[in-house]
Amino acid sequence: MMTESGFSVIGSWPLVISRALDAYGIDGTALLKRVGIEPAQIALPEARCELTKLNRLWRLAGNLTKDPALGLTVASFVRPTSWHALGFAIWASNTMREGFVRLSDNFRMFADYGDLSIHNDGDNVEITMQRDAGVPDWCAAETDAFIGTCVLTARHIYRPDFRPEQVWLSRPIPDDITPWQRLFKCTVYFNATADRIIFPSEAMCKPLLTASPELAIQNDLLVADYVARLDRADLRARLESLFLSHLPLGQLSAQRAADELGLSLRTLQRRLSEKQTSFKLVLDALRKKQAKQWVRAGNLPFGEISYRLGFQHTGNFSRAFNRWFNQTPLQMRQTSIANEPE
Hints:
Elements (H helix, E strand, L loop, with lengths): L7 E3 L1 H12 L4 H7 L4 H4 L5 E3 H15 L4 H6 L8 H8 L4 H10 L1 H4 L3 E8 L2 E8 L8 H18 L8 E3 L9 H7 L2 E3 L5 E6 H4 L8 H18 L4 H10 L9 H8 L3 H10 L4 H19 L4 H8 L4 H12 L3 H9 L5
């Protein structure tokens, strides 16, 4: 378990808070410096901001604005560039569900203070953010800003009048809940055990006009590379990033991978074994993951996908795909685009 000082968020996040503070007539840049955040440094692509400093920024901003709904205001200032490649990948996703899956899979790129999960519940999809137990000091505004960003992003990429079924927030109930009802446009519960958004499944699977499969794939590669560099201790993430930079999958030998990772082959094998996996298992799992992603993207011919995955013949790819997902690539692609607008 990490101490609070060990947690961090993407460097662009406090910059969003700074822009929102400017709208209140407060010098956001000066406030960043006051809590020990150097604007020029956190503007760098791989910069991170310590959670302790972010919390100080939230508290000071709250005291100066006197606005209990400050976090909701900050959410309205978030743009795709605010989360770098991850933001672009989310906006370019085929469906809202696909976008939130990308956010869930790569949540630590945004913040490492918790986990984001997605699961079906009848006719709904639940998106839950569970904070790490090692984060005792928490600002309610951070909850509002993140969950608000999720809902506003859904409206931007799907439909302006879109609303969740319910929103559950771990923050204490404010004296006036009107700003929260105004933004979420649904029933909002407070003092929850976790932060949760409940979306209707039908809407989550609708094709998006902002979809750009090729752009999404390109940014997925950038995200994978960022995450691998972010946590150099995560050997699996580093290895997956390496595989994706040496297409077709399977072309990279274990020896060459070890060389590029700065490890001996024996050390690479031992460290993977310690994680209950192996070079081949990581490669096979990545093939399955990318097969689904590239087929659903819709812009790549099956022959190209087969090549990227490292299959010598398209028939071998089709048989493997059917074994993985109990349907053919064509069936999955037709399902994913069945409701696509003309």
